[in-house]
Fold EF-hand domain-containing protein.
Amino acid sequence: MRLGAVHCREPAWREPSDPAAPSSGAPAKGADDLDPFSERVASMITAAMMKLGSAGMFGFCAGVALKRASTEAAYTVGIAFVFLQVLAHKGYIDIKWKRIREDVLYLVDTDGDGELTRKDVLKHVRGLLNVLVYKLPSTSGFTVGLVYGFRWS
């Protein structure tokens, strides 16, 4: 491939185009044949599906969805905070941050010690996992998929 004065090599997964080949749009090979790159991707996906199983795939999808939802929630809370602070700074509203902190802490503090600790967070995570793995045949596969989906999406 030529790009200006620079010569670029065709990608390894792409076969160079043959100008003499008919441009009918139909593949020259059989309909089920894949190029080497697509073949590698398909084999990697198949291997992952076989190892994780359906519960793992559901876990992966749930992890991706949870990460997206938590990101969107963080954006929403951040925008609301900025908006409220601007209104408070301009004198339109008076925010009682101490009361807001107490109310939020009441909702998330599971052991009642008045602080949000690792123990409280673990209890909420375990509660969420209990809901998500309810009656699944492979909870370990789901959990691995959930972690992969949340981490690498």
Q: What stands out?
A: Confidence is low (pLDDT under 50) at residues 1-6. The first helix runs from residue 36 to 89. Helices lie at 36-89, 97-108, 118-132, 139-151.
